[in-house]
Amino acid sequence: MDRDASVPRVVVGVDGSPASYAALHWAVRYAGLVEGTVEAIAAWELQGLQNWSGPAVDMDFDADEARQRMEQELTEVLGADTAGSVAAHLVHGNAADILLRASQGAEVLVVGSRGRGGFARALLGSVSQHVSQHASCPVVIVRSERS
Q1: N or C, which end of the chain is more exposed by having fewer CB within 10 Å?
Q2: d(Cα 90, Cα 67) in Å, to the nearest integer?
Q3: Closest CA to 142 of 10, 44, 33
């Protein structure tokens, strides 16, 4: 992927949660202010297989279908015009690691305060906490109004 280093990149993690949608809206508004681009990153991995030494195959996961769902969700959340300007990436791997790699050289990394997992009373999810401690760029953690 060729990137113009003079154009600020705003990387945002999305997972379908209300907080990630709030982060997506924040990222789009901020990118508009700095005349930057937005990269929406969704990560997926096979749960429970982190220590598995055999082949990691999920017979039910369809990457093309997941990409289509992601693009459809972006359109529903942002509207067709805005969603078309957001580069959507579906990446296999640990969400925190994927976001840290994607955000290298970015203007900012934006994440929701809590994603799909975790405990309802937690102030920060594990991914937002991890990236806030390890990112090489500024991190913005956005809380959903529904949190």
Answers
A1: N
A2: 6
A3: 10
Q: What is the pTM of this model?
A: 0.83
Q: What is the DSSP string of 91-103?
A: EES-HHHHHHHHT
Other beta carbons less than 10 A from residue 32's beta carbon: 13
Contacts of 72 (CB under 8 A, 6+ apart): none
CB 113 within 8 A of CB 124: yes
CA angle 25, 109, 66 (to 5 degrees): 65
pLDDT tens, residue by residue, 57-90: 555 667 788 889 899 999 999 998 888 899 999 9
